[in-house]
Amino acid sequence: MTQTNRDRNIIVTVDVVLFALHDKRLHVVLTRRPREPYAGQLALPGGYVHQQEDIDSLAAAVRVLRTKTGIAPPYLEQLYSFADGARDPRGWSVSLGYFALVDESVLRAAQSVEPGFGFELFDVSSVPRLSFDHNRIVDVALQRLRDKSAYSTLPCYLLPEQFTFAQVHETYEHVMGVALDKSAFRRKLTEMDVLEECKGQRVGGAHRPAQLFRVKTDLAHRLRLLDRPLAVPNPDKTATGLA
Amino acid sequence: MTQTNRDRNIIVTVDVVLFALHDKRLHVVLTRRPREPYAGQLALPGGYVHQQEDIDSLAAAVRVLRTKTGIAPPYLEQLYSFADGARDPRGWSVSLGYFALVDESVLRAAQSVEPGFGFELFDVSSVPRLSFDHNRIVDVALQRLRDKSAYSTLPCYLLPEQFTFAQVHETYEHVMGVALDKSAFRRKLTEMDVLEECKGQRVGGAHRPAQLFRVKTDLAHRLRLLDRPLAVPNPDKTATGLA
């Protein structure tokens, strides 16, 4: 039972599924791998944990995302850990998976810090074959995003700081992948009391300009979980336990 | 950016928070550490991932639990990964945390496979100081259990295969840590259609013997997630994003 060297050479990486809206559809940010394995192939932004540099796995995820894509997302949370002997040809490995949301304008402003790197955007409904088990990681992230969005203000992290009701409604629809009745959605959102009007801020033409909203100031940097769903994507889903 | 040896000696362990009911209260299973660090101290059942033996982290969790406590729980799922440079005095480490539920009768039958090992039960409301960051891991597991129980049949894994309505009601109360109105709870449970009567099976005296129920056969080894809460523990909870 004493630890042997063979038990201390497990590969430990962080991989981040970064979502953004683009052309009004939900996209995921991918990078090209600079070296083997899977050199030149598409993959999630990811990399080794650096013991000397990274205080914890969250810091590692922030560093990797900054280095590979130049992006610092306002929302980043641990997704799941993918840990087995088969997912990486180099040996037994752990991917500490994170998922993040960002407003498209941040993407546009982002510059890759590391020369030769950069990122590409792919519609979540047509993600190509990725390196390692990264397709599975994207699938798990997408499910988590949808489950959590139904009960929270999470999709608002995809929006700029100020947005119209039409934008937030559309964003929930894109994230959930379902049509949401506009007036029922507006009523629920009002009941939840999570948005506030930006006083005097309207956009659009002189005729019926649209009111701008933002997530309430005290909630701006927190995720608000709700006690009732804003939308129920799939009431009958089940999660498998160990038989 | 090439991997160096210093990046391939991160400690990778699995640690399991195993819950059971005992004296009608929710308890957690703890073991004594056989060696340094924290020799003789209480800790979660846990251990190193064995690359040669463990296909994946779930297999590692099952093996560690069997070896340290003799218990094979019917429900085991990944909780969260605790990964930083400070939680283990031996160096940068990852704990792949799992949580599990088991019927008390399985606990009583369990025998420790490894001589000198064994386990102790502690009421979740009075867990003593544990090794490493294991108190934090217990807290996270307890919160997950409560959140998930409100919307699922998860607490039924704490019960024997057949149980009375009084037992399931009491179990939800113990898990959630709140009183639940009996008739409202019965009505919701009926609407959810997750239990079935065990035909002809009743327990108790000759007067008004209680009907026995079980989780519906098609759901017996699956966790059923519900679209409405059976109980709402804390409607205003928030989760912090990255500011």
Provide a descriptive summary of the structure in words:
Two copies of one chain form a homodimer. With 243 residues, the first copy, chain A, is of the alpha+beta class. Chain A contains five helices and twelve strands. The longest helix of chain A has 16 residues, at 134-149. At the A-B interface, helix 1, strand 5, strand 11 and strand 12 of A face helix 1, strand 5, strand 11 and strand 12 of B.
Q: Briefly, what is this?
A:
With 243 residues, chain A is α+β, with helices and mostly antiparallel strands. In chain A, 24% of the residues lie in helices and 29% in strands. Chain A has 5 helices and 12 strands.
Show unreliable segments of chain A.
232-243
Quaternary: homodimer
Main sheet summary of chain A:
7 strands, mixed
Strand fraction of chain A: 25-35%
- The value of Rg of chain A in angstroms is 20 Å
Number of strands of chain A: 12
Secondary structure: elements and pairs:
The structure is a homodimer of 243-residue chains.
Chain A: E1 11-22, E2 25-32, E3 42-43, E4 46-48, H1 57-69, E5 75-84, E6 93-101, H2 104-109, E7 120-123, H3 134-149, E8 163-164, H4 165-176, H5 182-192, E9 195-203, E10 210-215, E11 222-224, E12 238-240
Parallel strand pairs in A: 1-6
Antiparallel strand pairs in A: 1-2, 1-4, 2-3, 2-7, 5-6, 8-10, 9-10
Characteristics of this structure?
disordered C terminus, 243 residues, three-stranded antiparallel beta sheet, alpha+beta, 29% strand, homodimer
